[in-house]
Amino acid sequence: MTVRALLQAAPALPCHPVPRRLLSGAAWAEFAAALATDPSLDLRALWADPTHVHALLVDPADGSLHLASVAVESGLYTALSPARPAAAWFERMIRDLWGHTAADGLDLRPWLDHGAWTASPPLAARPSPNVAAPDLKEFLPVEGADLHRILVGPVHAGIIEPGHFHFTCDGETVVRLEIRLGYLHKGTLGLLRGKSPRTAARFAARLSGDSTVAHSIAFARAAEAACQATIPPRATALRAVMAELERLANHLGDIGAIVNDAAFPLLQSRFVWQREAVLRASDAAFGHRLMMDLVIPGGVASDITPDGAGIILSVLEGLEAEWPRLLASHAGSASLQDRTRTTGHLDPQLAARFAPGGVIGRASGRNQDCRLHPGYPPYDGMTLGAITRQDGDVEARIQVRMAEVMASIALLRQLLATLPELAPNAVLAERLQGVTAEGIGWAEGFRGDIWHWLRIEGGLIAHAFLCDPSWRQWPLLEAAVIGNIVADFPLCNKSFNCSYSGVDL
Q1: Mean pLDDT, to the nearest integer, of 243-251?
Q2: Residue 103: which region, alpha, beta or left (left: phi > 0; alpha: psi -120 to 50)?
Q3: Please, are residues 252 and 271 in contact by the beta-carbon 8 Å criterion?
């Protein structure tokens, strides 16, 4: 049977806007096998609660969503990683947080649990005292007389999140990279439980601070979906304004960071200057440089200031005026092009297996943008097209970002020119009082597709999962750096710019 046929044959449980299909253990095993031969659905997320494991799949053609669940029996469930390697990191996370083991999984090493937790697994129905440290076989063995290892991190020389990079090299050429994260584990999923969506929104907004708007939108949309609430059009438009400002600032910063690692600090200084201008405009228009805590379940926390639109438009005009010179400086530097072209190549076929979103996927030919598919307001009523490249190298990722900068400027002009009249936010507290419901929400952040799932019981969050796009991108960085010299790893890493905090939960 196909994956779709298996899901359609399973009982449907209420979840908005799509039902969740509950598979038996045998049907889940068939589902896992079908994923190996049926590539029509992308695996976007895998998570758990104390009794079940859940999977989110998306049809890349039309953006339709499919949710599947299986009850965990004797602590085991059939692994999806043999069919979809992107599941391996999720399966490690599930084992550390809920104690469910993926039978025949590709990788069963601890990940988030570095041996310091007082109770393990912390999100299980009955966490037990952690009396023994986990078997921390952090890295695979190295074999070969001419190979050597280079260990980098987890503490780095700069303002950067902690992560441990383990290189296996033949001379200067990288033959394997293993990434060890988890140092920023904050217990976010546990902190959400027992709180109202309005209170819990502050934790979702801080999962990955540079994507605070996008994560807040996904979280709010999940809560709104659960109680089937409709928010005012002006709030929807203001959310999009904030999201596009966030995308602009981060793309400008990322381009600057990449060219700086290619020894072009003069060009980097101009991208950073423009990024700062966008952040200052965001502060003037919304009262916060990162616009944190301004997107809330039910709408927005405050309106744009009276002169906010004018300030934003003025910054956009300045960026557009300098943009041709920035593009010419980038394209006209032979030494820069020599560093970025063919470096960090991500094969489109490998990208298709991991289904990465955002710049990483689009630079390797994946025409995916969840503003379009499955889509959400107000983008579903706007002119928007995914920007793709086929080369899959550092230069392709720069080019996608540059094109998206111009696209975001056009979207911002359209949004600010057509802001609907002010209307009250939807009042979710009354709708959620005593309610038991489930919802899934999504948003397109500057890194790609973000997915949030909430189960609400008695008006409070019982279980949740917040999925950053970096889950399916970090493993691809491990592949993209192979065959490059060690000195080019910063270029590859900056061109991916995955979130540490976003996957450390």
Answers
A1: 98
A2: beta
A3: yes
pLDDT band at 138 (very low <50, low <70, confident <90, very high): low
Beta bridge partners of 442: 451
Pairing of the two strands 449-457 and 460-467: antiparallel
Beta strand pairing call for 101-103 and 295-296: unpaired
CA nearest to 35, candidates 19, 61, 57, 20 = 57
The span from the CA of 312 to the CA of 335, in Å, is 35
What percent of the chain is helix, strand and coil (3-state, nearest 5)?
Answer: 45, 20, 40
Write the burial class of residue 157 (CB in 10 Å: 0-12 exposed, 13-18 middle, 19+ buried).
exposed
CA-closest candidate to residue 467, choices 394, 358, 385: 358
Q: How far is CA 228 from the centre of its chain?
A: 24
Among residues 204, 233, 223, 227, the alpha carbon closest in space to that of 292 is found at 204
Residue 44 to residue 356: CA distance in whole angstroms: 8
Burial of 352 (0-12, 13-18, 19+ CB in 10 A): middle
Average pLDDT for the chain: 93
Name the fold adopted by 188-500.
Answer: Cytochrome-c3 Hydrogenase; chain B (1.10.645)
Residues 6+ apart with CB under 8 A from 199: none
Q: What are phi and psi of 94, to 5 degrees?
A: -60, -40
Bridge-based pairing state of the strands 76-78 and 101-103: parallel
For 115-127, how does the pLDDT look when each residue is reduced to its tens digit (9 = 90+)? 888 878 999 988 8
Question: Phi-psi region for residue 364, left (φ > 0), alpha (ψ -120 to 50) or beta?
Answer: alpha
At 46, is the secondary structure helix, strand, or coil?
strand
Count the Cβ atoms, other than its own, within 10 Å of residue 466: 24
pLDDT of 132 over the 70 cut: no
Q: Which pLDDT score is estimated for 131?
A: 62
Asked whether the beta carbons of 471 and 90 are under 8 A apart, the reply is: yes
Residue length of the chain: 505
Sheet architecture: strand order including 147-152: 147-152, 164-170, 173-180
Q: Are 51 and 71 in contact (CB under 8 A)?
A: yes
Count of beta carbons in the 10 Å neighbourhood of residue 298: 25
- Residue 174 tokens read as 């990288």
The fold adopted by the segment(s) 3-129 is Beta Polymerase; domain 2 (3.30.460)
User: What are the sequence ranges of the domains in the chain?
Assistant: 3-129, 188-500
* 80: helix, strand or coil: coil
> What's the rounded Cα separation, in Å, for the pair 37 and 17?
28
Q: Quick one: 422 exposed, middle or buried, by C-beta within 10 A (0-12, 13-18, 19+)?
A: exposed
Question: What does the DSSP 8-state code read for residue 373?
Answer: I
Q: Say how far apart CA 464 and CA 194 lie, in whole Å.
A: 11
